Each structure stands twice: as C-alpha cells, then as structure tokens.
Amino acid sequence: MKKILPIALALFFAMLLASCQMENGTATPTLTPNASSTLTGSTPNGTASEDKSIELDKTCITISKGQSDLLSATILKEAEKDQRLIFVSSDSSIAYIDQKGNLIGINEGKAEITVKTPSGLMAKCAVTVTPKEDPFDSFDLTNAEKLNWASYINEGIYADEKGNITFSPSIWEFGQYLKFGSTSYRVYLRFTHRSSSNIPQRYTFPTICMEPKKSSYNTYTMNLFLLAKNNDGTFCPIEGEAYDIEYIIIKKSTKQPLFYGTFENVKALDGISSSEYYSPSVMPGYLPKNDGEFYLSYLAGEGGQIDGGELQAHEDGITGYEVTATAKAGYKFYGWNDGVKTPSRSDVVSAEGKNQYKAYFIKDSRDDMPIANMYIFTETNRPVNAKTYIGEDI
Known about the structure:
The structure is a single chain. The chain is mainly β and 394 residues long. Helix content is 8%, strand content 35%. It is built from three helices and 29 strands. It has helices spanning 4-24, 172-178, 365-368; strands spanning 54-56, 60-64, 68-70, 73-75, 86-89, 95-97, 102-105, 109-116, 122-130, 145-146, 151-152, 158-159, 165-167, 169-170, 185-193, 208-210, 213-214, 222-227, 242-251, 256-267, 293-300, 304-307, 311-315, 323-327, 331-336, 344-345, 356-363, 375-377, 383-385. The strands form nine sheets. It has a five-stranded mixed sheet with strand order 10-20-19-15-16, with no helix packed on it. The longest helix has 21 residues, at 4-24. It is globular. 27% of the residues are buried.
C-alpha cells in the first residue's frame, strides 16, 4: 500500500500539469498516421513524403505507345496556390511529360510522374505504357471487297510538280465512289519495307490514315499525299527502296471498310529526295504532334539502336529529352552525323532546321579478329590445333 500511494500521487500531478498546459495552448498534440498526409516538407526520419495538399487528377493511368494525355495538378492549400508546378518523369524513355502536363507514351514499360512545387509539395501518378494497337488490325473486313488487282501511275511513289511526295493508285471499283467526292472516305495505309541495308527486312511501319484526293489523271485514280505542304508528318519512304503497301478504304461516316488489298513491291522513285518535304527519318505514324510543334528524330545505323525516344515532338526552342545511341553486340559507337562524339545527347528543336540526327556504329575490331589456325606438333608428331591452348600453358 505504501508503494501504490506515491505512484497514484505522481499520476495525479502529471495529469494536472498536462491539463494546465492544454489550457495555456502549450501542449504538442500527437500526430496520428493519417495526419501526416496534410503536412509539407519531410517525414520525421528526414525523407521526402507525398503531400496531400497537392493532387493530380489521375493517380494511375495506362496509355498505349504514342498515345497522349494531360495530367492536371491542383494545389489545395490557399497560401501555396501561386507556386510554380514542376513535372518530372522517372523514365522519359517510357513516359515523357512536359511542363504543361502533356504526357506521351514513348516505349512499353512503367514509369512514375511526379508533380512538385519549390516549397516541397508533391503528388505522383503511376504510368503504364502498353504496345500500340495497330488500327489496321482492328477492322472487320467480313463485308469488305478484297481487290486482287489494282494499278498505280508513275510506276511508284513519286514527287509531283509541286514537290508533294505522292502515291496514286488507280482502283476502278473505288473510282465509282470518287465521282461523288473524296472527303467522305479515308484510306488506311500500312507500309512494309521489303529490304534495306539499315532497316530490318520486312519491317512494317505504323499505320497511317489519309484523305484521298481526286486525280486529274483519270476518274479512277486518287492521289495520296504522303508528304506535302501542311502535311509534314505522315510517312516518308526512302528513295530507291521498295515497299508492300496494304490498304483499307472506309466510309468516314460509318467507319465501315469498303475495299482492301495490297500493292506489292512499290518503289520510291529516284528524284523524290529533291522534294523540300523529303524527310526519311521522320516516320511519325505513332507520335501525334500539336500545332506549333516540330518533330525531333534520331536514327541508328547498322549495328546499333536509339534508346530514349527516337521520335519526339516539341515547340521551337525547346530542348528535347535525352537519347542514347547504344551499340549492339560486335559493334561500337562511332559518332553522329553532325560530328557529336558522345553517344548520349539532347537537342534544341528549331523551326528552321530538319531536327534529324543519325548515329553510326562500326564493328568492334576485338570481336572481328580471327584466331589463327596454327598447329603444334607434340613429341608423338601428332598435330594439335593451337586454338585448344588459348589461355592455357603449353
């Protein structure tokens, strides 16, 4: 009993003291786990924490390669509302975001977008980029007519008198529809490269969609302007190369296919490179761009690849995100076509320039050196291939 009394008295005075502190406003309340979501700055252990006084309109998003979306951030604390927002991607080679919140899927994979302010407010969005579904494969061709024969003028893809890089198929069946106007129809094209020294054989490019134009050649021929004025991002074939061109013609109002078929071994004729629109490294069938933006593109020569987004779209004067020229096995990076010798680079987009860069690779001489086919004669006079002893004591 004598031991219990002092303990009880101590507890009584402690409670009395706490009560006085609360009345004077000097007590420090204990934070519950949920209370930390409204704090700014750092957690007790000094690590940065996500802050609920700023939020994104999406916390998790899935987009396909080449698809774009907009992330909007809202600062909830009135005193912080005038702060600048900073958008950052954990991996710009997968998901790229600009400082306006415009998000683009670059390559398949996962990344995290963070929006923050100079004072330390922070919110995050998880991004998953999936492979792009090719619209060419999404059409139901059950009721469409397959055309086994069709021709085209000028023996291939050509540059017309205005410099427009053009493909002009003559399809009698579709010509009956063209009589009533071409704006009601759309043509989907998918180019497959037949062979090349720097493009994998049978490489199929992303599908493009175009409005056919009536040709003055005859009533059955349409012009498909692949590259022309105010149409600077459809598809540019490489001069002298050949392509198989699959096509589907649909009615715009119903999106129902009318005709489909394939033009085989269509050559990009000599002379198209003289067109001011000729831009063979720009093949943006999978990357949209807005008005006022320009394409920034990177190509890899034989023996390498571009990591980090080989095709980008930015406004004039904006620095694109970094890319790296990576050598494949047996090759090493040599340099860029403009003289840059470092494999990683980022470039400022220019409204006046072509904004195209190509990386070159050479064979690694160490992998190229053959092992001499020499023989050593043993005491028994039996020849032994010297390759057997490489790295060994003889």
